[in-house]
Design brief:
The chain has helices at residues 12-42, 52-91, and strands at residues 97-100, 104-107, 112-118, 124-130, 136-141, 147-153, 166-175, 181-182, 184-196, 203-206, 209-211, 216-220. The protein is of the alpha+beta class. Mean pLDDT is 79; it is low at 1-13.
């Protein structure tokens, strides 16, 4: 079942308000500066006139600050537009089956599944599952023949304790009889059920696993 996009309001209006407040404050300070400058010029000692370099430098400083405020405002607008475009692109993944090859898989209702490939036959193959903190929670022996293999995990750790649903990573380590490393790859697949925008960057939610758009290796119906 496809669920709706989860998001929080963007900060575009807040950004514009903050930038306008900064410009208003700068304008007020600049008006005060001009008033003081005019007063000083009117009352300066003709025999010892003010150094024009001083207030020229201050005028340049005000101009630079104004340019920086406008630059920051424009940059934030571009970032906001980029986030909106990324969210629209992410929404096209809803209901689609995706494959990832970073080793991550979703443990949902006590079950997680991966496929792994051995480039050549091995003498030993070790499968290790780690949690989100990088801790190894389960290990077992894997297949030794070359080609694709499937592995399903029941979510129990080394001591037989049922672990919480979430994202786990499968790592495959294979070697031949001479202890030479055998090239392997790991993949998992699932259906995108939701787009999470709470962090500002769109994340595809597959089961209990969140994926960035860059994590997707393949897309299907």
């Amino acid at each position: 079942m496809v669920t709706s996009v989860s998001s929080t309001p963007t900060s575009t209006s807040t950004t514009s308000t903050n930038s306008q407040d900064a410009l208003n404050q700068l304008s007020g300070n600049f008006s005060t500066f001009l008033t003081l400058l005019t007063t000083q010029l009117k009352n300066q000692d003709p025999t010892s006139p003010m150094d024009s370099n001083t207030f020229t430098q201050q005028l340049v400083m005000y101009s630079q600050v104004e340019q920086q405020i406008n630059t920051n405002d424009n940059l934030k607008t571009l970032i906001s537009q980029g986030t909106t475009n990324a969210a629209a692109m992410a929404a096209t993944y809803l209901g689609k089956k995706v494959s990832v090859t970073n080793g991550n898989g979703s443990l949902t209702n006590g079950s997680a599944a991966w496929t792994y490939n051995l480039n050549a036959a091995s003498a030993t193959t070790q499968l290790a599952i780690t949690d989100a903190n990088g801790n190894t929670v389960f290990t077992t022996s894997g297949e030794t023949t070359a080609g694709d293999h499937s592995f399903t995990w029941d979510g129990k750790d080394i001591n037989g304790n049922q672990l919480a649903d979430g994202t786990y990573k499968l790592t495959v380590t294979a070697a031949d009889s001479a202890s030479n490393k055998i090239t392997s790859s790991v993949a998992s697949a699932g259906t995108v059920g939701q787009i999470d925008m709470t962090s500002g960057t769109p994340k595809l939610v597959v089961g209990n696993m969140e994926l960035g758009l860059g994590d997707i290796a393949a897309l299907g119906n």
